Amino acid sequence: MKRIVFFTFFLLSIILPRFIHAQQCNLSIDTVIYNGDIFITPDTIKVCLGDQLTFSYTNAGCPVFMMNNNFNNGNIGTGWSSNASPMFNNPCGPGVDGTTYLWIGPATSFPRRLTTIGFQVTTQCQICFDMKYATQGYSSPCEGPDESTEGVHLQYSTAGPNGPWIDINYWNPNGGNDPNLTTWKNYCENVPVNGTVWFSWYQDVTSGNDYDHWGLDNVEIFCPPPNQTIAGYFQGNQVSNTNTATITPQSSGYFTAIVSANQLYAKDSVYVSVYPSPNLTISGLNNSYCVTDPQATLTGSPTPGVFSGPGVSGNNFNPSLAGVGNHVITYHHYYVTTNSATGYLTLFNDEFSTNKGWTGYGTQWSRGPAVASTGCSGSQDPSIDNTPTPDNYIIGNWLGGCYQNNMNQTYWLTSPVINC
Description:
Layout: E1 26-34, E2 37-40, E3 44-48, E4 53-61, E5 64-69, E6 81-82, E7 102-104, E8 112-115, E9 119-121, E10 126-133, E11 152-157, E12 166-171, H1 179-182, E13 185-190, E14 195-203, E15 214-223, E16 229-234, E17 237-240, E18 244-247, E19 253-261, E20 264-275, E21 281-283, E22 296-297, E23 299-301, E24 305-308, E25 312-313, E26 316-317, H2 319-322, E27 330-333, E28 365-369, E29 393-397
């Protein structure tokens, strides 16, 4: 039996809540690998008997928050330090959640640095935060960085709050008008070392105190608890105690991944529908024919399927075309799964809530939140994402702004490879 299997899948996401002071668990089955293809978070996956599946699940886990600083008290936070006289009056528009944020405007000292207290962490921990660059060319305190050297570094030190410092990441301003940088965006970085670690946001190059401003909000450091467990189950039986599980299902049932700690847990499930090997039959085909016999109409079971062999055209066998001799006529059954509600087959779907590997992003093209434009000739950019998901992310040319006149070249945005 030759099998060709297609899937319709739905994109799901579980987003780690941004303002958590108590422990809460979180887990999502991200991908399923079947016959070498990767499928993103399907609710149901349909396979043939004897085929192998590999599940991978993101373990956001049951994090213990070492720190959660949202700056809503209107100050830098206990134990933190900065030489840049941060502002807490939301001088450059609303924050990501409508509350107070920290803003690095005209600094009293330079280079500009914002440093946390020391935290006892491991490489299993993460540091997450919201950050925004001001837009280049606006008035102080909302004038943004534009040169490639004027961005912000996230750094760490194991020696103390005075360094020495090592970069974790750096955000290039990309000309100062990149909407991915000039709108609030959440960033998460893995902690690179074990031990007591200080973190710092550092800007070492600007055009002066009245230039190149930026802000932070909702800084979190969280780690998995030492007694956390993760496991994968199929039909109620444990098949893995890691972040992946491989099974060869003999019958239909649920695959479930569970993470737990301190009597808290989270789980996600995918239903595996196993298609048993069918008995194939051909009706309407005799054991022998004369070359002068009329053509025969063939029926294969189960459907759908196609016939092949000498003298075969569609569902018909023509003895005169086959000619004298012994011939093999084959029925190939195809097990095809589609969206049962619409009959449509989804090969690729992207509503841009995550980066699926498009290339060509830069000054012209970007992926980011929908932002209304004003003053452009013709129609304006929309203020909201019109796709049904609530992520509000789109791709576009100069999101929230007007594209440049008299461009001297074409700027392409190219999709990832789509397996058809």
